[in-house]
Design a protein that fits this description.
139 residues, mainly alpha, 50% helix, globular
Length: 139
Amino acid sequence: MVYSVPQYLNMLRLAKRSPATILEYRNELGYFAKFLKVPLDEVHNHLLPENLINYAATRIGKSEAGTTVRMGIISRYYKINNVKFDEMELNILKARFTENRHRPEGTPTDRSKIRRSNGRRRSRLQGRPEIEMGSTRNQ
């Protein structure tokens, strides 16, 4: 069975996904429909691997995190509709689409280096007001 976008979004609702998640899926699938130049409720008729790869190519040089989220949403829609990808297509879809950006020497590039460069780990609660133990409501 092939699911249209409205059917897929309804399945997400029935699976108790948050309204924000459903909206994000609807928006991203809408961008994909616009890219394909088809109405949203016809996207399921255009689920070809090359369409997704061509869409991925439009993300080159854009936010890596955003691209990962966008491609994940559309890839899941492809997957639920049983679209298969060969090895090369999968490699393309898993590639990082952001160009390497120059970082000045000595700039931390990951969280562990940032923690080390600060000299100590910060507490998750650091900077938050302390909560006193015991209730003051009934006093």
